[in-house]
Design brief:
Helices cover 50% and strands 10% of the residues. It is mainly alpha-helical. A three-stranded parallel beta sheet has the order 1-2-6, sandwiched between helices. The termini are far apart.
Length: 279
């Protein structure tokens, strides 16, 4: 059975051919320039939309994104089916706090159902693809918030902007942002790997989500830079469409109830701790 699982993993790797790999790379690291003829007069607005494109929706490539998503779901399903036929004891499946959609001011826990919108639907599909593994293995869905790290990720996009003095609130700045430091993300995964009594969804987020205003001002303070250049919500909607509404203007107030009740200890409980570590 282990040999069969290895064959599936090898096939999955081979299946991620250049076009899909390129689409996934664009999905994770940046969507490239805006369409020819589009004009953005605000540098901070363009940077904000660049972050949006890099995180979720490469401009001009919706078909590639859809194909990449279907390919990833197919790979997850193949792995889950193989695990269901093997003696692998635990399967930690990557997921995201986007499952909950726009939470508003409500604190979402693992007991809450899915939200609405493209991102929530996508995460539901991700988790459903991994569900067959539950026949044999302990399956944990790692619903991860944006990870704060010294390199790459959300801060990799924001750091040059803030250092240049171009940071500021997005929209009214009152939307919540959940987050987790990279070292807490790794520690939580290790914790869950050895916690035989935990299965199902687990929110990998720091205990204290913050308003985006607080996030950007705290980051400016840590980097000793001003953050006084706002980007109006109307500009973001015009440039980013529905994905701007979901990813930038929507609230993500998600708390880690399962980890907290299981006794997990966060190294970076506060935003200041995490941002100071990443600089």
């Amino acid at each position: 059975m282990r040999a069969a699982l290895s064959d599936v993993i090898a096939a999955c790797k081979a299946d991620v051919e250049a076009p899909t790999a390129a689409a996934l790379q664009a999905l994770m690291t940046g969507g490239g320039p805006l369409a020819p003829g589009e004009q953005v007069t605000s540098t901070s607005a363009r940077a904000a939309v660049g972050i949006l494109q890099g995180l979720a929706y490469p401009a001009g490539r919706p078909q590639q994104l859809a194909q990449a998503t279907l390919r990833v779901i197919a790979i997850r399903t193949a792995l889950a089916d193989a695990i269901a036929e093997s003696d692998v004891p635990v399967f930690l499946s990557a997921s995201a706090t986007g499952f909950y959609g726009d939470t508003g001011d409500r604190a979402a826990t693992e007991a809450d159902g899915p939200g609405t919108g493209y991102l929530a639907d996508l995460v539901v599909d991700w988790e459903a693809a991994a569900a067959p593994a539950t026949k044999k293995a302990r399956v944990v869905f790692l619903r991860t918030a944006p990870v704060l790290a010294p390199r790459g990720g959300l801060l990799g996009k924001l750091r040059p902007l803030v250092k240049a003095g171009l940071g500021g609130r997005l929209g009214d700045g009152k939307q919540y942002l959940s987050w987790i430091s990279l070292r807490d993300e790794v520690a939580a995964i290790e914790f869950l790997l050895s916690s035989a009594d935990i299965s199902g969804p687990v929110n990998l987020t720091a205990p204290i989500p913050v308003h985006f205003n607080e996030f950007i001002h705290t980051y400016g303070s840590v980097l000793h830079r001003p953050t006084r250049l706002p980007v109006p919500a109307a500009v973001l909607r015009t440039l980013g469409g529905d994905m701007a509404r979901e990813m930038i203007l929507g609230s993500s107030r998600v708390v880690p109830d399962v980890l907290t009740h299981a006794g997990f200890s966060f190294t970076d409980e506060t935003l200041v701790d995490a941002l100071t570590w990443t600089r």
